[in-house]
Specification:
Largest sheet: 2 strands, antiparallel
Strand content: 5-15%
Helix content: over 70%
Radius of gyration: 24 Å
Shape: elongated
Order of helices and strands: HHEEHHHHH
Oligomer: single chain
Number of helices: 7
Number of domains: 2
Length: 208
């Protein structure tokens, strides 16, 4: 999760807890309670507030981390499927971080038009995958990848028309390989061997 987003989530979850606990605290304070009971109740509510805030924040943070990880997996899976479909040789490299394995793909780029279609294919996969919400950063990365392979300067409207046209041309391949991308996404969550993953991808695509 990005630092700026972390801050927003932290403050947002704190505000949500306050919306719940402040009225409750006022209600307790209005009751005819002895000073010691009121003191104990107030301290208890404060502790509950802290625990609730931490729980909500950690829950959102965990979901955001999974979303980020899944986005990388889907982009990886859609990239290797596209390369296989187009007969482009590639290698898979494993990158290890503190939390999980992630993979990068290296390939010899062909013509600019093919690279544009690769970016579009990744976009179709990431935007139509259930349970994953593409972040703005991911959208920009794919968009920039596509634009970097444009050979001519286009206006914003021309870019929109070209994007739409290329997306339409890839709909068949996307629909035909959506399940394949999903299977690869699940497979790489359980397997960290690059060679096994490559063989798995090749086998799936050949069955199509």
């Amino acid at each position: 999760m990005e630092p700026s987003l972390k801050k927003i989530v932290y403050i947002g979850s704190l505000f949500l807890v306050l919306l719940i606990m402040v009225p409750l605290t006022k209600y307790v304070a209005a009751q005819n309670l002895s000073d010691i009971i009121l003191f104990i109740t107030t301290i208890s509510l404060a502790n509950i507030s802290c625990l609730l805030h931490i729980f909500i924040y950690k829950k959102i943070e965990t979901k955001a981390k999974y979303n980020d990880y899944s986005q990388r997996n889907i982009i990886f899976a859609s990239t290797v499927v596209f390369l296989e479909l187009n007969g482009i040789s590639y290698t898979i490299q494993k990158k290890e971080n503190k939390e999980q394995f992630s993979f990068s793909v290296n390939w010899k780029k062909k013509d600019a038009a093919t690279e544009q279609l690769r970016a579009i294919f990744c976009s179709l996969c990431i935007h139509n995958f259930k349970g994953i919400t593409p972040t703005q950063q991911t959208k920009w990365a794919i968009q920039n990848d596509w634009e970097e392979n444009l050979e001519t300067n286009l206006t914003i409207e021309e870019k929109k028309r070209l994007w739409k046209k290329q997306s339409k041309s890839l709909q068949f391949h996307f629909k035909n390989n959506k399940k394949t991308v999903n299977k690869i996404h699940k497979f790489i969550q359980k397997n960290s061997n690059s060679e096994m993953i490559k063989n798995f991808v090749e086998e799936l695509v050949k069955k199509k």
